[in-house]
């Protein structure tokens, strides 16, 4: 069984108002070797509070309105239910601020480096990572600590 494709959307608030354009871009991500990140065309630098991950982008093509709603929810402050749990669909879109780990692609986007360079850095041990099965994840706390240590030097 193959893992679902995940695409990092670096400006959830921007794309929430343009779901049809985003759906077209997501369709290019399903091709072998297609991009795994969609940047903010306004040129703003990546902001962790405005990043969302779209899982299985091809499935969203038929649901642009739902994609718009999910992105809008990811771009705003997450509300919680009476149980204290985030009021988001599980597994559809997860704002980075709600997760403990990043994908290597998300870490690359936040660090301003290419996907390939990020994987090389993970292999060398320059970027802290953990493996869960075949997945490689970058713990947010370890990445923040690494950056804090680098800026202290």
Overall mean pLDDT stands at 78
Distance between the termini: 45 Å
| Backbone structural class | alpha+beta
Helix content: 25-40%
Silhouette? globular
- The largest beta-sheet arranges its strands as 2-1-3
Order of helices and strands: EHHEEHEHHEEH
Segments where pLDDT lies below 50 for 5+ residues?
77-91
Question: What keyword list fits this structure?
Answer:
alpha+beta, 3-stranded mixed sheet, 14% strand, Molybdopterin biosynthesis moea protein, domain 2, single chain, 153 residues, 6 strands, 3-stranded antiparallel sheet, 6 helices
Task: Please render the helix and strand layout as text.
Elements: E1 6-9, H1 12-16, H2 19-29, E2 37-38, E3 52-55, H3 64-75, E4 101-103, H4 104-111, H5 115-124, E5 130-132, E6 135-139, H6 140-152
Parallel strand pairs: 1-2
Antiparallel strand pairs: 1-3, 4-6, 5-6
Helix pairs in contact: 4-5
Question: Mind explaining what this structure looks like?
Answer:
The protein is α+β, with helices and mostly antiparallel strands. The chain folds into two domains: 6-82 and 89-96, no CATH class; 100-152, Molybdopterin biosynthesis moea protein, domain 2 (Alpha-Beta Complex). The chain is built from six helices and six strands. The protein has helices at 12-16, 19-29, 64-75, 104-111, 115-124, 140-152, and strands at residues 6-9, 37-38, 52-55, 101-103, 130-132, 135-139. A three-stranded mixed beta sheet has the order 2-1-3, with helices on both faces. A hairpin with a 2-residue loop joins β5 and β6. α4 packs across α5. Mean pLDDT is 78; it is low at 77-91.
């Amino acid at each position: 069984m193959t893992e679902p494709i995940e695409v990092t959307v670096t400006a959830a608030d921007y794309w929430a108002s343009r779901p049809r354009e985003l759906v077209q871009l997501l369709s290019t991500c399903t091709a072998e070797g297609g991009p795994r990140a969609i940047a903010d065309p306004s040129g703003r630098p990546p902001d962790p509070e405005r990043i969302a991950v779209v899982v299985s982008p091809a499935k969203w093509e038929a649901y642009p309105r739902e994609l718009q709603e999910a992105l809008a929810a990811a771009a705003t402050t997450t509300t919680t239910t009476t149980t204290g749990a985030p009021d988001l669909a599980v597994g559809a879109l997860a704002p980075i601020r709600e997760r403990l780990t990043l994908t290597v692609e998300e870490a690359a986007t936040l660090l301003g480096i290419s996907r390939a360079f990020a994987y090389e850095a993970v292999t060398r041990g320059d970027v802290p990572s953990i493996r869960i099965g075949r997945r490689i994840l970058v713990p947010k706390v370890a990445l923040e600590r690494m950056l804090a240590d680098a800026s202290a030097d």
